[in-house]
Amino acid sequence: DGGITQSPKYLFRKEGQNVTLSCEQNLNHDAMYWYRQDPGQGLRLIYYSQIVNDFQKGDIAEGYSVSREKKESFPLTVTSAQKNPTAFYLCASSSLFRGGTEAFFGQGTRLTVV
Amino acid sequence: AQSVTQPDIHITVSEGASLELRCNYSYGATPYLFWYVQSPGQGLQLLLKYFSGDTLVQGIKGFEAEFKRSQSSFNLRKPSVHWSDAAEYFCAVGALYGGSQGNLIFGKGTKLSVKP
């Protein structure tokens, strides 16, 4: 089935650790996105990428890093510089069309600092 | 700057009653508008979208939305709510973000509870 796969579903991070969230899509979409979701805050954009080996910062990129070595994959690393990483993280993808195409979402990863 | 406002944080309706969730947007050009639904701990599923043409759009699960340019609104409606509709609903506008295309700006969501 075509779709977006995020793993793991739950992730626990110790203070000072970097952790990486996986996002893979088989929809042949050019664009991929990472959003952070906190209760009552909606979705906030962390990073996005329109093409392999290129990505742009979103509204809340500090403390996060990404890579786009393959079209299908867009992993997100939450670094120790992110002071409040506990949140629900959603990956999405879309085809590159003038703002009119919808984004498809993965099932999310819940990250908790322990 | 582009933005989306969902004025209602939480709405409770009785099963079988009608539903309207409000969404107002601020966007400098012709907007592309979306409604998504999210069940707890899950990703977002697209309910419907408006790109152009008929201002009343039909979606999945019996939902519809009406685009009103004069009011900058895109309200979501359903004539008869089912208990399974309890979820959080997000309105979004397609934006040009830093020169890119395809990114979405989301409202903060409206949580829907359904009374039996």
* Proportion of beta-strand residues of chain B: over 45%
Please estimate the helix content of chain B. under 10%
Which geometry of chain A do the CA atoms define?
A: globular
- Indicate the structural class of chain A: mainly beta
How many angstroms separate the termini of chain B? 41 Å
- What characterizes the major β-sheet of chain B? 6 strands, mixed
The chain-level structural class of chain B is mainly beta
Largest sheet of chain A: 7 strands, mixed
Approximate strand percentage of chain A: over 45%
Overall body shape of chain B: globular
Number of helices of chain A: 0
List low-confidence stretches of chain B: 97-101
As a whole number of angstroms, the C-alpha radius of gyration of chain A is: 13 Å
Q: For the record, give the distance between the C-alpha atoms at the N and C termini of chain A, rounded to a whole number.
A: 35 Å
Number of strands of chain B: 12
Which residues of chain A form runs of ≥5 with pLDDT under 50? none
Q: What is the mean pLDDT of chain B? A: 90
The level of helicity of chain A is under 10%
Largest interface: A-B, 33 and 27 residues
The oligomeric state is heterodimer
Per DSSP, the total helix count of chain B is 0
